[in-house]
Amino acid sequence: MIIRSHQVKERGYDFDHNGNILTIFSASNYCDGSNYGAFARWDYMADGPEMTSYTLQDMSPNEQLSFNKQVTLFEDPVYQTLMKKIVGKKSLLKKEFEKADKNQTKHLSPTIWSDIMENILQIDLPWLTLRSKFVREDAQGVLYNTTIEDYALDNTKFQKTHTGIIEDLYMWKDTLMALFNLIDSDHSGFISRDEFSDVLKLIFYGKNVNNDVNQTYIEEIISTMDFNKDGKIDVNEFLESFRIVNMKKPENLHDKPKRKWNRW
């Protein structure tokens, strides 16, 4: 039997595929009080697990979240992961929201908003009951623009100051992180000047048939990426450098930069 989690089930658990897969969700009241939590006890030599569902008393619907509870929500890794996926689909979500908002009221019904979230993100969650955690609403309905606008990232390198750039960065973040770890050969958490210089030499000297890339140019690139001038490149500096390149890339893909290589 395979036991999996991270999917809300109304009674806290569910068996699928002829009882071979058990989905169990331990948090009750996750959907504003509509779901049970569950846990499994599997005794030695027993044919299967003994399931127990439970629910805990939720706070009053009118009770405001305390500061500590709000902080806990923003520090929740599941919430952070969902928000990153939302940011990565920001443009497509906005397009679908505006398409559904035929009267241009900046509002949608909760049902339409939740349907769009599920269709675009392809994540099977009870968006309708979870909407208070992701979007604001008033008497007219859901203020769909607040799905993104009210979310602030902790890291100052990832502020929402440039439309579209942050989305690209999130979509490519895993690749950039893998590249950073590859260059950081000693796994120190920083890219030293020597480590980065070695990689640039491999790239430039292998591609540059005119051999006009010298150590001075390599040092110039490294210095540009080393924002705090401490002699090494941390992960934030590395990601920020790619963000800046994205900002400066030509509007017309056929426009060629003046230099042979763009400065980072």
From TrEMBL:
Q: Which CDD domains match?
A: EFh
Where are its TM segments located? none
Keyword entries, A-Z: Calcium, Manganese, Metal-binding
Report which residue ranges the record marks as coiled coil: none
Keyword Glycoprotein tagged: no
Question: Which residues belong to any copy of the EF-hand domain?
Answer: 171-206, 213-248
PROSITE patterns in the record:
EF_HAND_1, EF_HAND_2
| SUPFAM superfamilies, sorted | EF-hand, Metallo-dependent phosphatases
Q: Which PANTHER family match?
A: SERINE/THREONINE-PROTEIN PHOSPHATASE 5-RELATED (PTHR45668), SERINE_THREONINE-PROTEIN PHOSPHATASE RDGC (PTHR45668:SF3)
Know the name of this protein? EF-hand domain-containing protein
What is the source species? Answer: Rotaria sordida
